[in-house]
């Protein structure tokens, strides 16, 4: 069950990142949306059920169980935290079968905006501070998920300053991160329709990894992100240990370092970053299977209640930060329902990965393969004080 749920959530993320444009930083969490869609799919009928089932990627009869398995994974895996909340108007009577499909204790009486915002702050440890949908007297039901992911790197980076010699970040003083490792195969290069994409895996100490991906300078963000999401299931054209002197790839150069042994090394340099995003899911209603159920002219969710209901708002807020010590991200997603009608010895080979222009990131739960957060970094964090520097 969980394998099918993970596959469905990752497919949703893949479709979503294909809509991200290169102009600005952005991040999404299909893992935060998917359980809500899975809880709603069995409650819909007609075209609405078909669309939600397609978006979820598993039979409608299994969807609620798949959502429960996903939430259980997100609640119990090290470094992860998740919650489902539902707030119901006193005037709305829910069907017991649908109410019981939600996690125990998830359903409460409809509350003021301040109460829902407080739930977000509590569930995300203050990383986010508001519910992404606004409630009003016409809001009959709010269904929300909260997801937090945290990890510390098995090998921390060193803080410094990063300066790019060319490209959109040329001349900027960026808060840089740098580290060197002998595990060269944490770098892999993949062939895509948009050209080669280099992917560097940064391992966390609790089973959460972050893949950093960079393509050719003119490669669209969507193409680089898609390659990063797909990376575990695709055979790379080259791994870091297969690079030789003078080889190149996007963001990658190879030369010789200094040292007293001939062990190859992988040097990585990139800026610290924090990406925050807010998404109106109904702007891409077809992607999430919400086209029909967001049409309020008829009863769209008869499995929830006999009272006519439709999805009047659907949104996600997200923040993700990559630092020298680790990575943390939080996503809150909410639906509001309304009535409707080979080197020489002594000179080690050095494979250098330099992310000094826009790049992608994908945070993944290593044991299950679940993509937790995926995003595009259009601008790194600026350096605000003095510090050791390294240039691109």
From TrEMBL:
Signal sequence, start to end: none
SUPFAM superfamilies hit by this protein: Serpins (SSF56574)
Domain (Serpin): residue spans on this chain: 10-380
Disordered: annotated span: 236-257
Xref: Pfam families: Serpin (PF00079)
InterPro entries: Serpin_dom (IPR023796), Serpin_fam (IPR000215), Serpin_sf (IPR036186), Serpin_sf_1 (IPR042178)
PANTHER family linked to this entry: GH10112P-RELATED, SERINE PROTEASE INHIBITOR, SERPIN
Family per record: Belongs to the serpin family.
Protein known as: Serpin family protein
Organism: Catellatospora aurea
């Amino acid at each position: 069950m969980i394998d099918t749920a993970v596959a469905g959530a990752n497919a949703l993320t893949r479709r979503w990142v294909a809509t991200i444009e290169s102009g600005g930083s952005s991040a999404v969490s299909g893992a935060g949306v998917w359980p809500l869609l899975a809880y709603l799919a069995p409650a819909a009928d007609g075209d609405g059920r078909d669309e939600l089932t397609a978006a979820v990627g598993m039979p409608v009869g299994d969807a609620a169980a798949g959502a429960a398995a996903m939430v259980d994974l997100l609640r119990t895996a090290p470094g992860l935290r998740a919650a489902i909340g539902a707030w119901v108007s006193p005037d709305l009577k829910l069907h017991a079968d649908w109410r019981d499909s939600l996690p125990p204790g998830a359903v409460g009486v409809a509350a003021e905006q301040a109460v829902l915002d407080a739930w977000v702050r509590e569930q995300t440890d203050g990383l986010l501070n508001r519910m992404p949908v606004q409630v009003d007297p016409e809001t009959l039901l709010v269904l929300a998920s909260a997801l937090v992911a945290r990890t510390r790197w098995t090998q921390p980076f060193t803080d410094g300053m990063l300066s790019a010699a060319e490209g959109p970040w040329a001349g900027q003083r960026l808060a840089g991160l740098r580290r060197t490792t002998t595990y060269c195969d944490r770098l892999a290069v993949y062939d895509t329709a948009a050209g080669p994409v280099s992917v560097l895996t940064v391992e966390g100490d609790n089973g959460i990894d972050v893949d950093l991906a960079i393509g050719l300078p003119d490669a669209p963000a969507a193409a680089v992100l898609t390659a990063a999401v797909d990376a575990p299931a695709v055979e790379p054209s080259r791994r870091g240990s297969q690079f030789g002197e003078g080889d190149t790839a996007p963001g990658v150069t190879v030369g010789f370092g200094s040292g007293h042994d001939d062990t190859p090394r992988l040097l990585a340099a990139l800026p610290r970053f924090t990406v925050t995003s807010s998404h109106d899911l109904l702007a891409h209603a077809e992607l999430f299977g919400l086209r029909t159920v967001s049409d309020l002219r008829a009863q769209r969710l008869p499995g929830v209640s006999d009272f006519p209901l439709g999805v009047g708002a659907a949104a996600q807020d997200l923040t993700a930060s990559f630092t020298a010590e680790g990575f943390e991200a939080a996503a809150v997603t909410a639906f509001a329902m309304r009535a409707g009608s080979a080197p020489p010895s002594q000179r080690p080979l050095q494979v250098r990965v330099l992310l000094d222009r826009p790049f992608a990131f994908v945070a993944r739960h290593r044991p299950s393969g679940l993509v937790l957060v995926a995003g595009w970094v259009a601008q790194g964090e600026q350096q605000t004080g003095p510090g050791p520097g390294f240039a691109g």
